[in-house]
Structure formats: structure tokens, C-alpha cells
Amino acid sequence: MIRIAICDDETGTCTEIETMILHFAKSHALSIETEVFYSGEAFCRSLRERCLFDLVFLDIQLLQMDGVQVGKQVREQLGNEKISIVFISAKETYAMQLFQVRPLDFLIKPIAKARIFAVLETFLKVNADSRNAFQFQIGKSIYRQYLSEIRYFACNGRKIELYANCGCEVFYGTMQKVWQQVEGKGFLAIHKSYIVNTAFVSVYHYDSVRMTDGTCLPISQKYRKSVKQQLTALFQRG
Question: 18-70: per-residue pLDDT in tens?
Fold first, then answer.
């Protein structure tokens, strides 16, 4: 699931951008969720409460807290470097101010569909390269989940359960295919039915691990030696 915010005080602009995003999602078989905000204050408040968004289309000429101020608050006060920011404006005179916020792009109104599609293509490429997303399919939709947010995978028959900070997703697959995507990226196979993100292991026992959310998962005999070696080395490094 890709989560995109649109922050603009013009209802028409929000509707146009949202429509283009949903067209892109349909044409690329992607699962994209959008949410619209009509003020910078409302958007920042949502980030403080949930921090859910991967990308925001952010208008610069907002009524009270303008887009540049919102961007600085996101980066400096909230310390959020993950969210990609695309500024939108009717003017072209903000280059130096925007540089400090490290935006993904800058779009001039009126915004053409091709420009929105190009930005979304860039976003997918940048995030696939730098954030290491795990990709899976539910029905005809393709989902992406950042590896850094995944706690563990569990196999339940032909279904894989992906447990992440934002909840659980269930899809058809095999642990072998899961392992092909996460091998060498901070994950450990501890059982034929469990693959864990070592960043979320809080306690290690000879025959089990406890995750940071309190879940206890078994370590099968086959994996005990390798798990002990890798987690012991990890814990020693701190």
C-alpha cells in the first residue's frame, strides 16, 4: 500500500490531482490510498498523530502555514525524512527556499496528467532503490511495504501473514519466495514458518525469540545454531 497525501486549499486542484493518482494506480495495478488536506496545519497534525504517508503533493500558497513552512516542520520538527515531498505552485520563484526541504519535485499549475505520472514513476524508482520495499500481490493489486517497517512473516498453509508497524497483511505465497526478497537485508529464518526482522527482536532464547510487540516465536532445531550465531553477534554489536 502506497499512502499519498494531497495538501491544497483549492478543492478543484485536490480533486484533479487525486483523480490523476488513482488513474496511475489503476494503470499500474498498484494499491494507492489518498487523503486530502485543505490546510498545512491539518496535514501536520495528521503526521504527528499517525505518520502514515509515503508521499505528499504540497501546495506552497496555503492560507496560514504555507507549504515551505509545512515542509520545514516535517523535516526539522517532526524529523520525518521518509516522506517524499512534491511542491506545487502557480509561481516559479521558490527554488532556494525549497532546497532546504529536499523535495522530490516541483510542479507548476496547471498540472498536466503526464507530469503527475512522471513524478509517481520517479517516486517508485527512488523508493525501490533506497528504502528496500517488499512487494506482494493480493488479487490483481500489487502492494509494497518498507522492509524497515516489517516485524516478521508467518506462514499459515498457502497464505503468508506479513506483520508490520501498520498492521497485518495476508497474501498467497511461499516462505521461499519471501526469503528471496529479504535475504541479506536484516532478516532471519528461525523456523520453516517464521522469518523475523532482527531489528524487532527484543529477547533471544535458545528455542524462541520475543519480538518488540511481545509476540513469542519458536526457533526450530534446524535453525538454532545459525540463529544463535547471528543474533549473538548482532546483540554484541549493540
Answer: 999 999 998 887 888 999 999 999 999 988 876 678 899 999 989 889 898 99
Query: What was the pLDDT predicted at 222?
Result: 95
Longest dimension (CA), the chain: 64
pLDDT tens-digit series, residues 177-202: 999 999 888 999 999 999 999 999 99
Q: Which amino acid is at 126?
A: V
Put the strands of the sheet holding 159-164 in their side by side order: 167-172, 159-164, 150-156, 194-197, 187-191
Contact between 82 and 104 (Cβ < 8 Å): no
Q: Kindly give, in sequence order, each residue whose CB lies less than 8 Å from that of residue 139, ignoring residues fewer than 6 positions away.
A: none
